Automatic annotation (TrEMBL):
PANTHER family: POLYISOPRENYL-TEICHOIC ACID--PEPTIDOGLYCAN TEICHOIC ACID TRANSFERASE TAGU
Stretches assigned to coiled coil: none
Annotated Pfam families: LytR_cpsA_psr
Family indicated by similarity: Belongs to the LytR/CpsA/Psr (LCP) family.
Membrane-spanning intervals of the chain: 12-32, 38-56, 68-89
Protein name: Cell envelope-related transcriptional attenuator domain-containing protein
UniProt entry tagged with the keyword Transmembrane helix: yes
NCBIfam families: lytR_cpsA_psr (TIGR00350)
InterPro entries, A to Z: LytR/CpsA/Psr_CW_biosynth (IPR050922), LytR_CpsA_psr (IPR004474)
Keyword terms, alphabetized: Membrane, Transmembrane, Transmembrane helix
Length: 485
């Protein structure tokens, strides 16, 4: 069998490296988050390698060990460039996915008792239904129209609040209720086993408009991000109350990050109607309502949002290979019974979720939980910005694309990544918490009194002052400092 001329093999090896060099440089250029100085440096190195290898491969004697070794190294380098190109392209895809216009989905259910004779929606015209219309009249009107378009005219009763709504269903004064799933948590406060004692026979879905960003040059100007963690598992786009509420101020000039924790039970007027309610309930009216109400509290425009739920939080911690977080005291979580020691703790996903949800183990309850949430955010930021991310880079990319929702544009995210790669800033993370006093006050969404936190005016003013300093490119030093240190 005739052997292939070694000269052609050498040309093939060299051509593969040349082609992969072009692919790598093109990918780095078009994805746009690789700093130009790195792109130029990479191009210079690749050109030097190509020239040097040309002489070592083609100007050495046939069968020369140096020529063979160079060919082997050339193939190895080509493989590395192929892998590098893939991950750069993949990162660009993740950024594009995150930057897609996001729509929240509102699900409204028709619910009956477990033993109800009603088996499907087509039986509804023969029975009496009830709903609570005052909290979101447009959604209820839309739902009724959709039901009647499907099954015909229905008999409808209006309840004054969720307590009355549930009472009517359980006492069989009505045969079914119409419930926006965003408000299911309020019903569960009335009936602990509501989910087990009822069933959904029909559901209407409604998409809500995307939340527009107030864009800035994120590499030159400070900006504010609302971080919302809803208390649901599963689909991230589902409208629900906001259990974790954090305002994150980022200043790329001073290289500072300001974390401001907003307790979920802070009592403040809803932006939509001026009625007092818990801040956690703003999420039930949609993400825009949470952002607008928070903007009213701090008297500042909020540029962007980041949203995740319990499932996405756990997926991210898993992708990172767990997270190491500092605790100010030892305690055992009520969820899962995990023991947290004072000082450093390396937590897996379930332990991390239990850590950030825990409040009953602390004297100051929700305030301590807020501080632990700040510790967790600080720990995640530091791990993502450190070389440790390299070992889990692929998993993190896959997870982030499916687990986080934001309205930041792809160009803005690329610019932030490029800045981090170029400057490798050592972010100074400062923490603050809005405080207040416990009280029982009427809440609009509930239609009755509930346990709330009346915010201290001085606390809100201090939060506003810190934000003003951040926006003015002044260095901030809070009393809490970096809780992760």
């Amino acid at each position: 069998m005739k052997k292939i001329d070694n000269k052609y093999l050498r040309r093939i090896v060299y051509s593969i490296q040349f082609l992969m060099s072009i692919v790598l440089l093109s990918t780095m250029y078009f994805i746009q988050f690789v700093p130009m100085k790195y792109l130029i440096a990479t191009a210079v190195v690749l050109v030097i390698l190509m020239v040097g290898e040309y002489f070592l491969i083609f100007y050495k004697k046939k069968g020369s060990k140096r020529s063979l070794l160079t060919q082997f190294l050339s193939l190895l380098l080509s493989c590395l460039m192929a892998v590098g190109s893939f991950y750069i392209y993949k990162t660009g895809q993740v950024v594009d996915l995150l930057a897609e216009e996001q729509f929240q989905t509102r699900a409204i259910s028709v619910i009956v008792l477990k033993d109800s004779v009603i088996k499907n929606e087509h039986q509804l015209p023969d029975h009496l239904l009830s709903h609570v219309s005052y909290v979101d009249e447009s959604t209820m009107d839309y739902t009724v129209d959709q039901i009647e378009a499907e099954v015909g005219k229905i008999s409808l009763d209006d309840s004054s609040d969720f307590h009355q709504l549930v009472t009517k269903l359980y006492q069989k004064d009505v045969d079914a209720i119409i419930l926006d799933e965003a408000f299911r948590s309020l019903v569960e406060q009335e009936k602990e086993h509501f989910n087990e004692e009822t069933r959904v026979i029909y559901q209407v879905k409604r998409d809500e408009a995307a939340v527009n960003a107030k864009s800035v040059d994120v590499t030159q100007k400070p900006f504010l991000v609302y971080v919302s963690g809803n208390d649901e598992y599963g689909d991230l786009t589902t409208v629900s109350r906001s259990d974790v509420n954090m305002l994150v101020g980022i200043n790329p000039v001073t290289q500072q990050i300001l974390l401001i924790s907003i307790p979920r039970d802070i009592y403040y007027p809803l932006h939509r109607n001026g009625q007092y309610d818990k801040f956690t309930h703003t999420g039930m009216y949609g993400l825009q309502e949470s952002i607008d109400t928070l903007a009213d509290i701090i008297d500042q425009d909020i540029n962007y949002y980041v949203r995740m739920n319990f499932t996405s939080f756990m997926d991210i911690v898993d992708a990172l290979g767990g997270i190491t977080v500092n605790s100010s005291e030892a305690f055992t979580t009520k969820i899962g019974g995990y023991h947290i020691q004072e000082g450093e703790n390396h937590l897996n996903a379930k332990q991390a979720l239990a850590f950030v949800r825990e409040r009953k183990s602390f004297i100051d309850g929700d305030f301590a939980r807020g501080r632990n949430q700040q510790r967790m955010i600080s720990a995640i930021v530091k791990k993502v910005c450190s070389p440790a991310i390299l070992t889990s880079f692929s998993d993190v990319l896959d997870t982030v694309s499916q687990s986080i929702e934001t309205n930041m544009l792809s160009d803005e995210m690329n610019a932030l990544v490029s800045m981090q790669l170029s400057d490798m800033p050592d972010w100074d993370i400062q923490s603050y918490q809005i405080t207040g006093d416990s009280a029982s006050m009427p809440c609009y969404s509930l239609g009755m009194n509930a346990s709330v936190i009346i915010p201290h005016e001085l606390s809100i003013q201090q939060a506003s002052d810190y934000i003003d300093q951040l926006m003015a490119n002044e260095k901030i030093e809070t009393e809490l400092g970096d809780l992760q240190q």
